[in-house]
Amino acid sequence: KERTRKGALYMTFVLPSEYQQVGRAPEPYDIAVSVQERLPETVAVLRFAGFATENEIQRRLEELKVEIARDGVFAVADDDAFRLHMYNGPQKLPWLRSNEVCVNVKRLKPAS
Fold it and tell me: Of 9, 23, 70, 71, which sits 20 to 30 A from 92 (CA to CA)?
């Protein structure tokens, strides 16, 4: 899930590498679904287990941002934007769930 600046949520899926060219991807059955190519980006990710509640998401985002700032090599590109990756269905036990919060970052220091 990704939250836009206006607060809307949308869901994304990553297609297998055989569909690297958008034209090769299968046509969606639903007209509300579209296939889009994303430009390469540099991101920072924090993985966590359990339920991805609003409070837990905010707590983990703050934890990720603190780690990025502490490292000093990157900075968060847009403080209001983030992505939530949830990898499991609703039947998965909480301690076995795998989630990630993800933010775009920009490099502050040149790569060594």
Answer: 9
Question: Which tens digits make up the pLDDT trace of 20-33?
Answer: 788 888 888 998 88
| Prediction pTM value | 0.76
Distance CA 21, CA 76 (A): 29
Q: What is the CATH number of the domain that holds 58?
A: 3.20.80.10
For the chain, give the percent of residues with pLDDT over 90: 50
Q: Is 72 left (phi over 0), alpha (psi -120 to 50) or beta?
A: left
User: Are 25 and 35 within 8 A, CB to CB?
Assistant: yes
Number of domains in the chain: 1
Q: Which domain holds residue 79?
A: 2-107
